[in-house]
């Protein structure tokens, strides 16, 4: 099995090295990742300029750095290395829960794989006190999750989040979408000029069964996702209303 690995924290993040080391137990591994941090880049692709893909040192792993987004890296990685079966993205330094999935560059790496008809799995871990997650302690859990998901061949896209403390289990979850945690905060630069900074505020309320709830409870959260954004129940409703109108006024 050929496993392509990307992230949005950049090719030199300790999280991608940890994920690549775990992935080598499952197949051939190649890392193709952004040369600088691209967090919150979401599913953007670079269409206005050419890209470069350069070999870069990463102990024991064949790795390349790209001057682009996670989406670009998956496009380049799967084009330059034929027969990729699986794309892993992460391990991100910072959780990707709830509405963050709309902004996440980590998840976008996995989504780009799903768009190409491949399997994609995104991994994220909270950063305690703005430090780094304990990647060594998470590695056995990443291996367990990967083994479990590789057996579940009918899941094209999965978002995985680790809890802050050592996990005591794995939970299947839904995306928590009820509360939005993004906020714009005004401030002053050193010259006294006003600027604005997008930040994230803590969400206290959690709903049982969601990704946010699971990591609060100390579980590894696995959320199966899909690319189709259509609201199918709403679509059925509007179609039924249209059909009824035609019947009435025909
Ligand atoms: Mn990131």
Number of domains: 1
Say how many strands there are: 11
Rg calc = 20 Å
Number of helices: 6
Under CATH, the topology can be stated as Stationary-phase Survival Protein Sure Homolog, Chain: A
Structural class: alpha/beta
Strand order of the largest sheet: 3-4-2-1-5-6-7-11-8
Task: Briefly say what this structure is.
With 250 residues, the protein is of the alpha/beta class.
Give an overview in words.
It is a single chain. The chain is an alpha/beta fold. The protein has one domain: Stationary-phase Survival Protein Sure Homolog, Chain: A (3-Layer(aba) Sandwich), CATH 3.40.1210. It has six helices and eleven strands. The strands form two sheets. The protein has a nine-stranded mixed β-sheet, sandwiched between helices. It has a two-stranded antiparallel sheet with strand order 9-10. The chain binds manganese (II) ion. Manganese (II) ion (MN) binds next to helix 3.
Essential attributes:
single chain; about 250 residues; alpha/beta; Stationary-phase Survival Protein Sure Homolog, Chain: A; 9-stranded mixed sheet; two-stranded antiparallel ribbon; 6 helices; 11 strands; about 30% helix; globular; binds manganese (II) ion
